[in-house]
Amino acid sequence: MDRVNQTSVSEFVFLGLTNSWDIQLLLFVFSSVFYLATILGNSLILFTVTSDPHLHSPMYFLLANLSFIDLGISSVTSPKMICDIFRKRKVISFSGCITQTFFIHLIYTAEMVVLVGMAFDRYVAICKPLHYLIIMCPRTCILLLVAAWIIGLIHSVIQMAFVINLPFCGPNELDSFYCDFPRFIKLACTDTYRLQFMLTANTGFVSSSVFLILIISYIFILVTVQKHSSRGSSKALSTLSSHIMVVILFFGPIIYFYAWPFNTSHLDKFLAIFDAVLMPFLNPVIYTIRNKEMKLAMKRACSQLVSFRKIS
Q1: How many other CB atoms sit within 10 Å of the CB of residue 293?
Q2: Handedness of CA 199, 184, 260, 34 (dihedral sign)
Q3: 0.70 exceeded by pTM
């Protein structure tokens, strides 16, 4: 049956974050500044990695793709949230809500796989350095990237297949600033308890499992290095601390949304802002702040851009 015949809801209304004008102004400035910083920071990393021959290695290839994904994460939710902050009626069309949900799950799943790829890259580099260039060859990097987007696409399509034809005929208010399955499904005019449980458990199980695998992998790397050299362990800890921090910051909100049974509205919204606005900005900062090679390359890239502007 055609979806139009099943539903009388053609749009959804976001309740937003707050009704206080002062807080709205603060959120507008905060979100706008960090969104702009996210775009500039991740774009600079992409430009630096692609333009600097010294960074043409598997680790920086994966880092550049992580920055590309972070650009997508911030752009899926932040622009509309910023535009809606001062609007009394924050509206998104049915198709827009579906599209936003689809891309959220696509991009987040792709980032999970890329983070796994980065953990594997560090494992090979630290535990099997003599075989690093053989294992992490260009073909392996491309396969990891293709796998990330294919797995993300499959996950999103499967999730979407269960909800695209749900009937919506009643309330259309979402207590959020973006669309996602948990709140979206609750508005359907049918019993969706089993569907909610299945989709939430699916995403929660996958994210929790990947998180545990990554943490165990990093612990295994540190233990392996410590057996050989305490000095090497200190260096490995410095190298991996940024990776572990990004993993915790990325998976923490996701696991809370989908695996924690005692959700509260205020904490939900705080973590949602952190996940949509702050996290894509923190990733490039965390990955580059301790990386001397990356910082030097970014300075060279900025110098090139300044010189190019002067010539033009």
Answers
A1: 14
A2: positive
A3: yes
Q: How confident is the model at residue 1 (pLDDT cuts 50, 70, 90)?
A: very low
Tokens describing residue 117: 């790829």
Q: Give residue-wise pLDDT tens across range 41-79.
A: 899 899 889 888 888 889 899 999 999 999 999 999 999
Distance CA 18, CA 284 (A): 29
Question: 39-48, 110-119, 237-246, 273-282: lowest mean pLDDT where?
Answer: 237-246
Q: Rounded to an integer, what distance in angstroms lies between the CA atom of residue 107 and that of residue 111?
A: 6
